[in-house]
């Protein structure tokens, strides 16, 4: 088993429960791990025998930059589902969605939500 890891992808989106969060673009950072069996790709050294990272990136980008979600929980869950749908060889996905501009009365680097899904476990 191996992992495809994409760290600190940055996108602009309009996610949040407050009206101003939906009206202004904010930065969202996403870390992703996608698990699959790399044995065939390791032997062949061919892109066709693994998952093209750009397909995963594009799937995440489409969701973060697309339709607004009120909750990071919904966004992270949707990312997991979409990434699992990119290739049937993916066995599991773990996603961390970070929001640096979270509206809290205090100082912090970011708030986030982590979701992990395995194929066929909804």
Task: Give a description of the structure.
The protein is of the alpha+beta class and 122 residues long. It contains four helices and four strands; from the N terminus they run βαβαααββ. It has a four-stranded antiparallel sheet, covered by helices on one side. Helix 3 runs antiparallel to helix 4 (72-86). The protein is elongated, with a radius of gyration of 16 Å.
Reported by name, the CATH topology is: GTP Cyclohydrolase I, domain 2
- Output the number of helix runs: 4
- Poorly predicted tracts of residues: none
How many domain regions?
A: 1
Strand content: 25-35%
For the biggest β-sheet, the strand order reads 1-2-3-4
- What would CATH call the homologous superfamily? GTP cyclohydrolase I, C-terminal domain/NADPH-dependent 7-cyano-7-deazaguanine reductase, N-terminal domain
Largest sheet composition: 4 strands, antiparallel
State the total count of DSSP E strands. 4
